[in-house]
Amino acid sequence: MDCSSVGTKQLSNVIIRFAGDSGDGIQLTGDRFTGETAFFGNDLATLRDFPAEIRAPSGTLAGVSSFQLHFADHGIHTAGDAPDVLVAMNPAALKANIGDLEAGAEIIVDSDQFKRRTLKKVGYGTNPLEDGSLESYRVHAIPLSSITVEALRGFPISNKDAERAKNMFALGLLCWMYDRPTDATVEYLRHRFGKRAEIADANVAAFQAGYAFGDTTETFATRYEVRPAHMPDGLYRNVSGNLALCYGLLAGTQKAGIPLFLGAYPITPASDLLHELARHQAQGVRTFQAEDEIAGIAAAIGASFGGHLGVTSTSGPGMSLKAEALGLAIALELPLVVCNVQRAGPSTGMPTKTEQADLLQAMFGRNGESPVPILAPRSPSDCFEIAFEAVRIATKYRTPVVLLSDAHLANGSEPWRLPDLNHLPDIQVGFATEPNQDGEFWPYLRDPETLARPWTVPGTPGLEHRIGGLEKLDGKGTISSDPDNHEAMVRVRAAKVAGVAADTPALEVDDPDDCADLLVLGWGSTYGATCAAVRAVRERGGQVAHAHLRHLNPFPANTGDVLGRYRTVLVPELNSGQLLVLIKASFEVHAIGYNRVRGLPFSSAELAAQIEELI
Q: What is the pTM of this model?
C-alpha cells in the first residue's frame, strides 16, 4: 500500500489500553509509549492494573495485566474511562477488558493466541474473532506472534525469545498509528538490554518491524494525530507518584540542610521509594532495608534523634506494625515522615490495587492521645509538593507527619514541570547548641509560636538529656507520672498539631458563578476523576462547586466556612466513608458520601452521574 494513500485524522485526545499476560511486557510497553508521548508534548495520565503474583497464571483472567494511557492536546485529569483502542495479546485480555469498551472502539488482537485451548481457558465457547460478537467494534486481528518471529528470523535467539518481543512489535505499530517519536525507545532498549546485545538488537528490530508493518500494509487506512498540548513554559519530564515523592523528600532535606535517612521494609506499592532513594547517596541520602516494618521506623526515629530527617515508607499492613513506634515518635516529639502508599485491604488484601482506606487509621490507629498532621497528594506530580510540605511541617513543629499516597498515584504518571529549586521556600532548621534555662538544657522547653521543643544533635556538650516513651515533665523533660502534668502534655501536643492549620494554605473552592448548592469535596487520588466529572456536569449546564483537601489533619482553617456555604456536600472516596466521618464529626453540614471499594479508581462518568442526580 502506498503510504501516501493513508489518511490522517486529527484527534483532540485518545485513550489506549494495552492488555495481556503479566509476562507479556505490558507495563514496559505502556511505559515506553507514555515516554514517547510525554516527549512529543501531549498532556497525559496513566493507569496501571496488574496482578499481585510475580508470574500470574498464563492465559487466565486472573493473570491479565493492563496499562491505560490517556493523552491529549489539552489539559486532562484522568487516564480516561472507556478506551478508544484496546491492544489485547490473548483471549483473556480481550475478555477481561471488552466490557469497558464503547461501540466503535478499535481492537487490535494477536490472532495467533486465539486457539481452542486458550479460548476454553477463559470460557469462550466460540472464537470471538469469528462468531460475530465483536461486530460493533473495529477489529484488527493480526498474527503478532508469528510476524514477530518471522521478523527476527536470523537473529541468534530462540523462537521463544523472539515471540516474547511481540510487545515491542505492537508498540512500534501503535507509534506509527499515532505518529509517536521512536528514537528514545530505541535508545532505551539498547540501554535496558545492554548486557545482552542479541536481545537488545532483537527488541529494536521487532519495534521497527511493527512501525514498518503499519507503514507498508493495508491493515490500517488511517493514522491519527494528537497535537502537543499548550502548557506553561518550562522543562518537563514524565513522573510517577513514587518518583515525585522521592524528589520531594530530597528537595525538602536539601533546603533544610539536613541529611535524609530512610528506614524501610519492602512492601507493594511503596518499595519503589526504597529503590529510588538508594540511588542518591551522593546527595547525602542513607537507606536501610530493615528486617521488618518495626525496625524500619525505629531506625528512622533513631536517625531523627541523631539530627537527620528520619523517613519510613510502607503500605497499610505495615502501618499497623509501625503504630507503637509512631506513638514513640509522638512522645519524643521528633521530626519523622511516614509515607503510607495505600492499597486495598484489610490484612494483605489486594497488594497491587488502590484504595483510600487508611485515613482513620492514620488519625486514630495508636494508643493514647496521639495526634499527627496528615497530608495527601492529589496527583502523581503533586506527590513532590506534598512530600516537601511534609518535611517542612515535621522539622518546624518537631512532629511525625503521615503522608497518605496510594497505589493509583504511586504507579500513575503525568507530565511534571521541573521546579526551580532556588524558588522553593527555605526550611529553617535550628539545632540547639547551648543551655536554654538558667544554665541548664530543658529538652521540652517550647517555642511559643510553634510549641516545638528544641532539637539537638547527640554529643553536643552540656545538652545531654533523657529520651524514651515514658511521659515527660513539661519543660524539664524528666520522667513524670503526675496527673496534671500528663494532661498538660496531652493538650500541648494536640495544640501543636492543631496549630499547623494557621500555617497552611486556605481551602480553595472552584465555583465559577458562586451560586452552586452542591459542593464536591475530595481528597487524595480522587482529584482527577472529580475534576473531570465536575467539568462534564458544567458542560451540560449543571452548577456544582469543587474543593479538594490536601491537609487532612488539621483541616485548613477556613474549611468550616467553605462547607457552610453549600446546601449539600458530596464526599467521594475509595473507602466506606472515612473523610465523611471526620467531616460530620467536625462541622455541622449536610454531607453525604459516594463510596466504592473495588480496588480501582473512580470513573469520571459515574461521579458525574451522581453529581447530576443530587443537583
A: 0.95
